[in-house]
């Protein structure tokens, strides 16, 4: 559909016609696109074919429109910087809704609205919301196209920034449209920044709307997002589909969609193990996914850094894939001293958002180098010097880069792997030891259901405030969290050989506020202990909260952690844990009868162990 106002000079104009693909599923796709166009009234419709030429044209267009700043080609080839609107810098949990038919299916931890009522709210917002803009139709696959655990979707969006991001984060293009045409199932996702342009209107670099909605209809497998252009609010394949909608599919079909990284760990004898780890947003998944072990002989290969889908295989083990194709990683804190692999991954072809710009056209953020440059343009576009008294990069500034660029990526990273270990973690200044092994699967599910973590800048809210984030899925579970706990327990029956479960905490602090554990590459010491546990080669001691490393069984060769710090890292304060148990009970009570009885039993057993300790 070409309107008379289409800019003939647009580099994108050479692309974007509806593909002439035949098949029984094509009519439904075309009808849906036409229905959304009739509602949102874009000037043009562009069907994304996923070609490199199209991507190039899209980037050129965004530079011309002021959305992207091209970086110095000699320093950072093929890379760009986007600066968001100041009110559009993170996920918005308060504006995120799960609109299941029944409120109890969304549960007390999700915002809910009656589906018909929400549709009535959204309709006037989307009416004409794409006027003056191009509507992109983006077919995508989560997991490799045609893979046994993969799922398809289509995102309609009026944000070229979202299109470029989806192009990095998923597999986009004609091959997906062909499968949809053949009749493969797919999820409908609609996104508008909510900033229609009237004739003569000047556009802004980052269009958005003060009113924002991120809405999921799990019963009809739809996502509708309005008003935000940022990350998890706009790349709907990611948190909206691959976690919230997929978790519902998993509940109904016997699998799990998790907020987890996925790695292969290779021990000094060359034996390979697979681990998935759930940590809340901005709590270390990308870093652990790219771990460079500080102990000799060990290697870690990256499979995924944010989302993992897990299914029982025919041999009775649990198999996992990373459904994504890229990393949308936190920039601050990423540097040579912490995550060399990420620094190397970012050599070029990166879309940066809200980091600082250097005078020679490269990027900088807190932690990239020890000393900041003498002058920068900060994430808001203002002059910045080290004495400015404010960060140069937004704390939730991010990089978007293809997973294949990581030097640590496994050769077979698109294939499913059998899981040996599951880790649960959070950001806890107190109470939670460096590592605890679960007694068994049920106890492991209990540990997952109890994760609390200090808030980070990845979503709105007060940074540092402790909040419950079970399985790191509080913002991402698309159904009643108590049913989700039950589903995890059931997975224990669907598999005959289960992964071992551990709780970890890299973030415990001493009374002076300093981190007690060096973290980053030295987290390999914890992984080493865990793998030696699987092999039956490392000793553990029983405590009321689980099994912890026996004295000297954790490899501390070559690091400087004082005896006192080590004691504090593993200290179990019985009174504090009894208080935590009370909070757990309060939390479980939120769900009433729906909380699985097994978890109530676990809680009672924990209290008994603590009281008799
Ligand atoms: P999302 O992409 O939001 O899901 O975040 P993530 O879980 O992938 O977190 P990421 O690995 O990006 O780390 C977030 C922040 O935690 C960064 O600033 C890291 O430098 C910091 N971090 C990661 N691992 C460690 C660690 O072992 N110790 C300490 N002290 N900080 C860490
Ligand atoms: C997170 O917040 O967990 C992220 C970033 O990975 S976002 O895609 O914005 O959700
Ligand atoms: Mn995440």
UniProtKB/TrEMBL annotation:
Gene Ontology CC annotation, any one: cytosol
GO MF annotation: an example: manganese ion binding
Pathway assignment: Carbohydrate biosynthesis; gluconeogenesis
Biological process terms in GO annotation: cellular response to glucose stimulus; gluconeogenesis; glycerol biosynthetic process from pyruvate; oxaloacetate metabolic process; propionate catabolic process; response to lipid; response to starvation
Binding residues annotated for substrate, in chain numbering: 91, 230-232, 281, 396-398
Phosphoenolpyruvate carboxykinase GTP-utilising N-terminal domain mapped to chain residues: 32-251
Cofactor: Mn(2+)
Positions bound to Mn(2+): 239, 259, 306
Active site: 283
Protein name: Phosphoenolpyruvate carboxykinase [GTP]
